[in-house]
Amino acid sequence: MSLTHVAAGVQAASEPNPLVPKLPEIILVLIVFVALWYLIAKFVAPRFEQTFAQRRDAIEGGIARAEAAQAEAQAALAQYQRQLAAARAEAAQIRENARAEAQRIVEELRTQAQEESARIIARGEEQLASQRGAVVRELRGEIGSLAVELSEKIVDQRLSDDAQVRATVDAFLADLEQRDSADTGAGSST
Amino acid sequence: MTTHVSVLANPGFVPPGPADFQLPDIFNGNQVLLTKSSLLLVLAAVLVFVGFYATSRRGAVVPGKLQYAGEAAYSWVRDSIGRDIIGERDFIKYVPLLVSLFFFVLVNNLFGIVPILQFAPFSRAGFAYGLAGLVWIIYNGVGVARHGLLGYLKLQTVPGGVPTWILPLLIPLEFLSNLLIRPVTLSLRLFANMFAGHLLLLLFATGGDYLLLHATGPLVKPAGVLSFVMGIAVGFLEFIVEVLQAYVFVLLTATYISGALASEH
Questions:
Q1: In chain B, what are the domain boundaries?
Q2: Which residue blocks in chain B are alpha helix, DSSP H?
Q3: ipTM score
Q4: Looking at the complex, does the CB of residue B72 fall below 8 Å from at least one CB of chain A?
Q5: Which end of chain A is more exposed for a tag (fewer CB within 10 A), N or C?
Q6: pTM above 0.80, yes or no
Q7: Each residue of B1-15: pLDDT tens digit?
Q8: What is the extent of the structural domain holding A54?
């Protein structure tokens, strides 16, 4: 037992203390690690970050493009609807105008026709009055001579026969009637 | 008891100890540099850089398998350690540090269970001290640059929302824990885990070897087999410990930087 103790003691004395570092090792690990850190920071991390950024851009860019396309489509739809509404309004306006125009034309024509008819009536009345005047003038001239002629005949006949007189009057009146009808026939024909 | 005594009494078995971490010099010098551990350290840095350089070089928007693997590794440290701990505003500046730190420590640690290499460089205390010292310089430098020397000292030593009379007690404690003990625990945690892990593997391997081939006794052969099985189990355990220690190291670094940048204690 004591032998093993001695052996262990001897061994412990000859063994190095693992907690005591060697300065060159500290320097070596610093150099090696700082070099690795530098290389990773210089060549690896920027590449990875760039790749991540590109990937993010690709995804977000795709989303942005889709959103832009959708916005464009919506704008086109809105424009189309606006144009359609404008066209509808224009058509309604045109229809309204046409109706008003038609009304105006009808109105105009009616007044024209009324004026025309009034003018025709006035002219007819005028003509009628002038014709009447002419007839009256003519009659005034003829009535005298006719009365004279009739009285001459009556005086001539008085002496002969009553019946003769009556016949003469009748003949005169028939003659007059004939002449009058011929006269009106000639007047209406002109 | 007889087995025990026979093992101890047999001068053929030398239990593994700190001397096993003094690997021979490549150029047969005097145990200063260029040992296997130093070469492994450099190899780890080269592997990390080449791996990331190869996967980041193309930078395709639609990544291939290799690029995807590199991006996943990078983004994991970037997002789940950098962004989540340091915060959206400042983290991007520290991503290269955190990424290189995590993968550098991870690859170095994993060397501990890679056949033939089978040595984790951070079981050499000097390497762990160097790295932790660098982290200490960085987080304090970041804090001083952000708040000024006095502002930073106040931030790190005066906790907010504490009655004034207790401050004389708290300020030395906070100073000690935030500025002096942090680098020590950071380095010792990494170093001790790697050291102990390697020692365990050595113990089970050399012990199994000795029990099977050299020791004499009624139960030595089954014990030797058990020793090897335990060695394999410890190997798997070591894998977890190695990954975890790399993670913890970077997590704490990010936490320290975040604390140095914070406007409130």
A1: 2-261
A2: 2-9, 36-56, 65-75, 95-110, 125-147, 149-157, 167-175, 182-213, 220-261
A3: 0.86
A4: no
A5: C
A6: no
A7: 344 444 444 556 777
A8: 35-180
